[in-house]
Task: structure prediction
Amino acid sequence: MTADNRSHTPRIIIWLLVIAALVAGAIVYTRVEPSAAPVRIALITADSDPYWDAVVKGAETTAEELGVELTVFRSNGELEDQNKHLSTVAAGGYSGLAVSPVDGTRQGVALRKMSNAM
Result:
């Protein structure tokens, strides 16, 4: 091997590794079957203020466009009511949650546990 060939050897090896990784990724990607379970998202409002009407409408439109199952829980502004909705979501097998906490300080631990479980 000449000095000129040795200087190109590391580049060739890197490109071969990149190409091999791309080919392996393409093979794996084409063989992975999509999940049969639908994506389920819950939206819990902080209260029943009309502000939430636009938020809910936007979430419903986006969920429909993306083929996501959206469940909306409208809280009445009371901590106990929102916690009831949070318990329902925790037990309901949801993929994700959007929530505006009534009392983030008092609900922080429960919300952290839920985020770790999803």
